[in-house]
Amino acid sequence: MSMNRAQALTALLGLPLLAQASAAEDATLALLRTQADRWDQAIVAKDRAAIEANMGADFRQIDGAGNLEDKASFVAGLLDPQLQIEPYTVEDFEIRLYGEVALLSGRTRMRGRYAGKAFESHYRYIDVYVRRNGIWQIVSVQISKIAP
Known about the structure:
By secondary structure, the protein is α+β, with helices and mostly antiparallel strands. It has a single domain, classed as Roll (Nuclear Transport Factor 2, Chain: A), CATH 3.10.450. The protein contains three helices and seven strands. Strand 6 (117-132) and strand 7 form a beta hairpin. Residues 1-23 form the signal peptide.
């Protein structure tokens, strides 16, 4: 089926809109990647203000044992003076965008000390971010432990 001139012109005029949409999505992906990296750094540094600024008030976490945490209990756990987390990296990082919702997922190998005792964990996670009033915030985390 051949395109008539009107269809061809419409297709050509739509290309700049597609390019703009792609550029906007690329910028959002870069922003979310940076924001996730900074949140990980804030967790290691125990920077309460930076940790909380990235979180929605309605934040929830489902941990590897199926326990439910809210924002207050999650932050309190991270700031526990007995907990020391070493810098870690994320593997297989992926971001999927769905309008005002983004799913960030990957795998993390974490090491540190709790009450003076060394620990190591390996888990897969998914972080759910929501854009509200132009600001992306994490509202949900779920982790699943990966056996050694």
